[in-house]
Amino acid sequence: MVDPDPSEDMLAGLEEFLEAELRPYRTELPVYKRLPGKGISRVDILSQIRTMARREEPKWKDGFVSGAVYNGDSSHIGFLNEVYGLNSQLNPLHPDIWPSAIKYDAEVVAMTASLFGGGEGGLASVAGTISSGGTESIFLAMRAYRDWARSEKGIAEPQIVAPRSAHAAFLKAAQILDIEFVEVGLAPDFRVDPSALAAAVTDRTAVIVGSAPSFPHGLIDPIDELSQIAVDRGVGLHVDCCLGGFVVPFARRLGADVPPFDFTLPGVTSISADTHKFGYAAKGTSVILYRNRNLRRYQMFTTADWMGGLYYSPTIAGSRPGALSAEAWAAMLSFGEEGYMQATKAILGAGQVIKDGISSIESLRVLGNPLWVVAFTSDELDIYAVSDRMTARGWSLNGLQDPAAVHICVTLRHTQPGVAERFLADLEASVAEVRSSPGSVGVMTPIYGLAGNVATRGEVAEILFRYADVQFKV
Question: What's the rounded Cα separation, in Å, for the pair 148 and 294?
Fold first, then answer.
């Protein structure tokens, strides 16, 4: 008798989970598999959209979600929606038609640069562009370093050297751009080990990477030490501030333990920061900054001999939704330094409450010393089973691996009265359940359990491919 394939059972579990989430959308609303013969009324379409929005809103609005929605205030959302409506036709590909696109993009870049030691009062040469999100910002930077290394250093096959904690977007960029990705380990405090990183740098290295903070554990790498490595070895240093770009500068001003991480360090040559996270703009905008315009040139595309005319594009996209740039501009202006300082203070306060509360729960352990992205594990219990039980209580947390852990990214939604306390109470109850009844529930436990086995990670990758396919099935 052949034993059943565990990966098939897990895929079935994932499909069942997804189907349960989608069931109301497929049973209570029309399902469209082809264009309707006659257009549906706008009133009816808006009614369907409102039905879906009302179903989804409570989870993120009431603070049950890690990250994902960083502001969520109704008046702020309404303000951004109005900005979008006024700019819905704006396309930065045609600045002759919409000069405002230049103003929005340039000023968002300049204001962001000023947070990182560039712009007025700082390093005047800092230059950048707006992108569609952190992944594109990282992609553009890696493309720039690849072509810079080829053109100015004669490196035919450049390398990226990055810590294991670096965002998956670096792996994605390396795969698409055909750059060798060299991974280095972490120190016991879950930050990159500078000695290991220095040892991994070769004469083919174009760029090294640090995070401020890292996505998995919310920890700021020793960027000052990486800066010195970059200077000594003549390589670029990209600091990934996608998650914390609009928190870390203000946290430092508030006296938090934030070491130097920006262009004030001589080795830092690029920084990515997402305006659509803690910058409180709508999805999706991000900013990629370079120490100088020469490096920025390498991310751009130009052609002078296309039959369609002269063409240039600073980012991957040609046409872009300029309304999103307008929203980022409007969000930054409406918050100002004072608003970001107040928001950061509230987030750090909630983060401290959650961190202290997790540390006080028997069997749980916080990884490192984070500020507001709090990762935790257990040496006694299956942490994924704990997370599954939190899911059953309405929470959406992020699963991590190597080591097995879970994190919560604290946002303004968690600074609402009682939310942090509700999280800790539910977490304590979930831990107690796992301790008294350790059998697994949900889908996270078996999937991450399989992923933890090196021999079966290929099976997990296949499950993810097939799960992605399922999501496009009507």
Answer: 9
Of 164, 160, 134, residue with least CA distance to 146: 160
Give the pLDDT confidence of 84-118 residue by residue, as tens digits: 999 999 999 999 999 999 999 999 999 999 999 99
Strand partners, 402: none
CA distance linking residue 146 with residue 207, whole number of Å: 8
The pLDDT of residue 84: 96
- Which sequence spans correspond to the domains of the chain? 86-331
- Whole-angstrom CA distances from 392 to 8, 315, 438, 470 are 23, 41, 15, 23
pTM value is: 0.92
Residue 397 is inside which H or E element, if any? none
* Residues in CB range of 214: below 8 A, 6 or more apart: 163, 165, 166, 167, 190, 191, 220, 221, 240
- The CATH number that domain 86-331 falls under is 3.40.640.10
Question: Are the C-beta atoms of residues 254 and 94 closer than 8 Å to each other?
Answer: no
Q: How far apart are CA 84 and CA 56, in angstroms?
A: 22
CA 438 – CA 15 distance, rounded (Å):
24
The residues, any chain, with a CB within 8 Å of residue 265's CB and separated by 6 or more, are 223, 224, 227
Amino acid symbol at 453 = N
Say how far apart CA 416 and CA 349 lie, in whole Å: 11
